[in-house]
Amino acid sequence: MKISGAAADRFAKAPDPAVTAVLLHGPDRGLVRERAAAIAAQWTPDPSDPFAVATLTDSDIKSDPARLADEAAAMSLTGGARLVRVRLDGDSAPAAKFIEALEAGDAQAEAKILVETGELTPRSKLRTAFGKAKSAAEIGCYPDSPAALASIAEAMLESEGLSLDRDARARLTELLPSDRGFARAEIEKLILYKGPKGARAAGEDSVSLADLAAALSAGAEGDLDDLADAASTGGADQADAALRRILASGAAPVTVIRALARHLSRLQEARAKLDSGASPDTAMGGLRPPVFMMRKRAFGTALNRWPARALDSALREALDVEVKLKGSGAPAGAVLGKFVMGLARFSAR
């Protein structure tokens, strides 16, 4: 069966007892890990107990296709619940065949089976096998929406006695990476920056834009800002260098194109106000979250260079690039590089 949306998180916290095997897949590996950890904790008292948990990898199954069936059928030495965790790099025909055999009654499972892998096509062998099986669940793990990330952030901050002011709330959704694991790590950095609950000075329980800038502006997010500013103001060399740093850091290509699209969308919003008679300062000042002080000069330069029609075209192209990144199989660096250089060349003209 296929489980998606809010039902997936509910299942991770309280798996259906009738389900023997779960497939977690998708581009958000942080969410795959988070849901896998939650399910494993429900299925066995101690997920780190080597007597209760067997871990298999791609190479284990490829070298011995019967290994998964053997581990699944083995009884627990201690008599308790047993779990087989399978960590794959992609699709797996042997694992899919085992699930099909299990569903047909041609294989036996004394243990629960938890399979984790990356993004799979809808017609992949694993998704097909798990999706059709009544005793198995297929759960896709995709990047959270900004609203979902905001909810996660606010819940984590609230548990530490912190709250976001209005501008910080809007800005935080832009700063957080779409990968849930990385997003949680960033929020934890913010909590660490603000200090432990009960030890903060009076008035320090609110998170401001300045706090976000101090705690989260470094690293890949700073590079994303550098990339957006350089590409939209004609700095081809600077944009190329920023893109290389971002991709080398392991950032998801889709995260990069979405950050560029957000920047173009904000330029589009400000451009509409400018074309309606507003001054550049007023056009920028009306944006929420506001343009960071250190980026105002670059944003103003881009605003003057990009007419509304060009921004419309660039945003449509950004959408096309995201589609290519998700499904064409083309090298992400080449696809993103072509788009970024196109932006820089237009702005330089």
In total, the number of domains comes to 3
CATH superfamily of the largest domain: P-loop containing nucleotide triphosphate hydrolases
The structure class reads: alpha/beta
Rg, nearest Å: 24 Å
Q: What does the largest sheet look like?
A: 6 strands, parallel
- Care to count the β-strands? 8
Order of helices and strands: EHEHEHHEHEHEHEHHEHHHHHHHH
Helix-strand blueprint:
Layout: E1 2-3, H1 6-13, E2 21-25, H2 29-43, E3 53-57, H3 58-63, H4 67-73, E4 83-87, H5 93-104, E5 112-116, H6 125-132, E6 136-140, H7 146-159, E7 163-164, H8 166-175, H9 180-194, E8 206-207, H10 209-216, H11 220-233, H12 236-248, H13 253-275, H14 280-285, H15 296-305, H16 308-327, H17 332-348
Parallel strand pairs: 1-6, 2-5, 2-6, 3-4, 4-5, 7-8
Helix pairs in contact: 1-2, 5-6, 7-8, 7-9, 8-10, 9-10, 11-12, 11-13, 11-15, 11-17, 12-17, 13-15, 13-16, 16-17
Task: Explain the overall architecture.
By secondary structure, the protein is of the alpha/beta class. The chain has 3 domains: about 1-140, Rossmann fold (3-Layer(aba) Sandwich); about 145-215, Helicase, Ruva Protein, domain 3 (Orthogonal Bundle); about 220-349, Up-down Bundle (Zinc Finger, Delta Prime, domain 3), CATH 1.20.272.10. Helices cover about 60% and strands about 10% of the residues. The protein has 17 helices and 8 strands. It has a 6-stranded parallel beta sheet with strand order 1-6-2-5-4-3, with helices on both faces. A two-stranded parallel ribbon has the order 7-8. β4 (about 85), α5 and β5 (about 110-115) form a beta-alpha-beta unit. α8 (about 165-175) runs parallel beside α10. The longest helix has 23 residues, at about 255-275. It is globular. The mean pLDDT is about 85.
